[in-house]
Every structure is written in structure tokens, then in C-alpha cells.
Design a protein that fits this description.
Structural class: alpha/beta
Number of strands: 10
Low-confidence stretches: none
Shape: globular
Order of helices and strands: EEEHEEHEHEHEHEHEHH
Number of helices: 8
Length: 263
Amino acid sequence: MSASSPDTFVIAGKPYRSRLLTGTGKFKDLEETRLATEAAGAEIVTVAIRRSNIGQDPNQPNLLDVLPPSRYTILPNTAGCYTAEDAVRTCRLARELLDGHNLVKLEVLGDQRTLFPDVIQTLQAAETLVREGFDVMVYTSDDPILAKRLEEIGCVAVMPLAAPIGSGLGVQNRWNILEIVENAKVPILVDAGVGTASDAAIAMELGCDGVLMNTAIAGAKNPVLMASAMKKAIEAGREAFLAGRIPRKRYASASSPIDGTIG
């Protein structure tokens, strides 16, 4: 990696330098949303179509006034959908509101307590959306077989959970994430479960292309400062992955070998 060849990744044909994707919900107001997004250095921001005003209500503050599409890639998501039908309908609405915008984040939930994905409904919705020309970034479980199937359907990015949404538990099954990363031909981004900067760094050290988070930033005591911390953690984790860590060993290994020393 050098200044002449920036470390980018590509989503739906567009390169991005920031590997931190942020949500726009749960902040106290739009100004805090703006400040945290800027501190995170995010280029892609996800918007819950069912919960955020991006033009549906002209009498309410519009999120796009503080996060304009001219500066950010808006990623509408299907948060709150529990069936493939509802998810597809929500994506169609987003495309209409955003003048033909095709990039969407698909999530179909299966349980209100854990917010785990309904993988059967997710597969059905993904097939329909890809067929209709959407560029689908898909939230899913950390099942490597399912992740590969979603890639084969035509999703432009696969986004396995690290832990349940909003739990802050961090990466709970790093071996599954590693298996998904090593067998993927599309970007893999951890989505859900990150709690603090070290969690984000671990995801990146595993080789993920990026991390999407909302609660970890918006729910922090100081969301803007946490956004800045997450930005640094993503960058550090990525550099560590590219650098290649030393092997783990059971015993110590001297930093300075004694061979050839004086006396």
C-alpha cells in the first residue's frame, strides 16, 4: 500500500477508501448524527427507510439535509422487516425516494428479542431484489455456507453479524468470520455486535473489508469521540492485517538473539 495506490475496496463498481460504514439512527438529533458521521470519516451511511425521513414527510427534518447524497453514498436498509415481501417493498420505496438508487442493505429479521436474521426469508428477498436490478448488501448470520450462497445469488457484499444487533459483545465466532472471508469473492463486512474500538480492530485483522456499526457509536457516552476512535481502530486493524502478524507461540522468543553477541 502506498500513496500512489490507495487501499480501496469496491462496492457495486464504486471504490471507497473508508472501511467504516455508519448508521444514522439512535442519535439525539441530526446535528449529532452529522458530527459523528464526520468524525467517523464514513463515506457510506445506512438509513432505515421505515424510521428515517428522507423526503417522505416534507414537514419533518430531512436526514439528507445534513448527510447529502452529493457527499455520502446513502445505503437504505430494510430494518424492521420480518418478511421477504416487506423487505422487497421497502427497497422499492427507497429506489423511488432516491431517484432510481439501486444500492440497498437487505436485512430480514426472524426474532424480535435477538434480532437474528431469518435466513430463509433473506434468501428469498435477495433473489427477488437481484432479479429486479438492485445492488444488494446483505445482513446475515455467520454461517459460511449461507454467506457463499448469498454471494452466488449476486449480492454485491455479504455482511455477517459479529454478535446480535446492539449487543456490543464483539466478534463471538472469529473462525466462522475467517472462513467466510477466505472463501469470498465479494466484500465481507461485519455488521452488528461491535461494542468498542478493539472489536472493530479484530474484525479488520481477520481480513474483513469493512465494518458497519450504529449502536456502538450512537449509544456511547460521547458518540462523536467514539466515532473518531472507531475510525482509528478500523485503520489500525486493516494495516495489521496487511502487515501480517507474527505466529502465536507457547513460549517466549528473544527479540534480540544472543548469537554473535560480544562476550
